[in-house]
């Protein structure tokens, strides 16, 4: 998530620069990576009470930081060199490789097979095992926010990105087949958010208007659900995230409210429809549909939020995720002022979620507050910084170049991706051998 900009315009040099650059949960939401103007930190999310910092690095002005599951691989992009992506083995303090591109990097997505880099008008797909360039998608409509989504399922590896700069068209690209599998006309307005569920059978989307969230089947592209976030005002949806079982979907925006929607289809009664108040209202409006405007019928058929959160933080821009911590359902929300809020979610009755704790990333001593009433102080533990502890690589990295390729496989006007620097040898991504080692070819 790229948080709200805090720097002033030209001539306002006295205004302090924002401390917070970005925040992202890893693919299974077991850790949180936070980028700041002085470096980045990786936190474990194993408990509600304590926010444990497991790594800290002093790379300046980080605006993209992504970790691959629970491995040691982390991708970092700094605003000091926005066209360059560095890939590190953070536990060993070594650089695996780095790439430089023809324009600024806007987002990076990872799964166990692919590493995807999104520029404004092109997308690069790399094999994450050896970092080779597999495919380049070029001549795309302008995508200034770098919006894209990559599924984490190995057998169903899909990439979704905007197919238009003026409408909410979604292109679903098969990362395994390297071909387009579906084009979905999702919204009238341009896209603002995309996310896959864990099994890559569902894709959720929101437009720049931020009033309606839709869920589609993948790869068919059929509309499964439609949720209304609100009607009074347009908002900017910052993030969408499915729960692990894909029965719930959370959405955060630039407002103080976070919504959770239920995707469960209710069992029909003997009459053939779910016996609920909403189904009764739905049948009533269905009977009157021939007399009502189409827009009114659409609004009445959209489901409302199952549960909500009203943030106490003054910085509303946020990223959210639904996880299970210690076998209990939790909603995690990160705000642009550098706080993590953890809420309990009542999966039976929904409603307003209960605040369990909140943590501040920037408190020098670390802080944790429990609940909305009582507050306690616990230290957020961080190990020594990289600069103080990491050993330098034994030898200088080897430099190589790779030719860029277009979608049809031909050379892209002879362009190269300069500065493909490798580490001195194979690097294991995880100390527990959970993931295969990176195979470095000399």
Any chance you could write out the topology, listing elements then pairs?
Elements: E1 20-25, E2 31-36, E3 40-44, E4 52-57, E5 62-67, E6 73-78, E7 84-89, E8 94-100, E9 107-110, E10 114-118, E11 123-127, E12 133-137, E13 149-150, E14 158-162, E15 168-174, E16 179-187, E17 191-196, E18 202-207, E19 212-217, E20 223-228, E21 237-242, E22 248-253, E23 257-262, H1 277-287, H2 294-300, E24 307-310, E25 318-325, E26 328-335, E27 339-344, E28 351-352, E29 354-360, E30 367-370, H3 386-389, E31 398-405, E32 411-422
Parallel strand pairs: 24-28
Antiparallel strand pairs: 1-2, 2-3, 3-4, 5-6, 6-7, 7-8, 8-32, 9-10, 10-11, 11-12, 13-14, 14-15, 15-16, 17-18, 18-19, 19-20, 21-22, 22-23, 23-24, 25-26, 26-27, 27-29, 29-30, 31-32
